[in-house]
Amino acid sequence: MKIIHLADSHLGFSSYSRLDEHGRNRIEEMVYSGFEQAIEKIVDLRPDAVVHAGDVFHHVRPKIKPLVVFQRGLMRLMKEDIPVIIISGNHDAPKSFSSTSPFRLFDNLPGVHIAQRYQYERIETGDHSFHCIPFCLEPQDYLTEFGKIERTGRDVLVMHGLVESLRNKKMRSVGEHELADSFLKSDFDYIALGHYHGQAQLSKNAWYSGSLEYFNFGESQDEKGMLLVDLESGRAENVPVRPRYMIDYPAIDCSGMRSEEIAQCLQELCREDETRDEMVRITLKNLNRAAYRSIDQTRLNKLGASALYFKIRTEFADVEEHLERPVDRRALHEEFSSYLREESSRELIPEKIKDEVLAYGSEIMKRAVLARHKEELDAS
Question: 3-state DSSP call for residue 283?
């Protein structure tokens, strides 16, 4: 029996503020597109079953579009008579018994089995038993639910969480639970795990499939995709969904570089044909603050214009001196306005609301400073 193991599709994830021509978040649309490509690749591979090890959705109350995209994927697999086994993860599971799981919308679909109620479920598919432990409300509940498993001799364990041996990879996300390494028993034919976004083998029979997409630059070196698993031999083969599209360049040492040299360095890294539809981050360290600020902002803004996301991260050589400079609290609103103008020049604040943001933020800052000053006067 062969299965596809995937996890952490995070449908509905939206970030980085880049919009397409229709006003849609580009990253969110990328996530939908990747999921649909994964479904088509599964259809081409014709596995005996599909196992999704949690976090189908990014939010426990997903909007309409991620629900529609997910439903469309399920219908495609149902049409091809490919059974689907899913568990809820920490992102898409309600955090109390009083809330309703979004997966309730897909109850009773033929060939679709979803473990979503904080408790162990055994699902028979093909010639294997799939032992599913979805997200639990309390960390100690996993051990209780694991104790309910009765082996059949042809067993697959499906869980969602971060195993102890990867605790240094904590994602610090909502409801993140740690799983004991003792769950990784060798008498399972395969253990399908979700939550960790990098593709990783923990033991001979235990794998994280990783996520389909890149969600932050900490994942830039991760293998992305799905796993095609032969339950007879235990062999797991990476199935990429699309080429790597996140580039996090090694930090560039700008010590002694003039503004023109910095601009030229950036220009060489950011050729339009190489950054189109890529997520790009460039770190400049030991920067001379004056040299960087003297670069034509229009020129900087054109860099990475065709990228899916583009970020220049700056580390100034004079940062310690800058942090020690005394700040006059009474002028904080001016500092704030200056900062926002700089961010706006890099297109991080939409032009049409810039003036309103400046005015509102400065006024709030003034009031805070005045209130604090009044407190000091009253105390004295």
Answer: strand
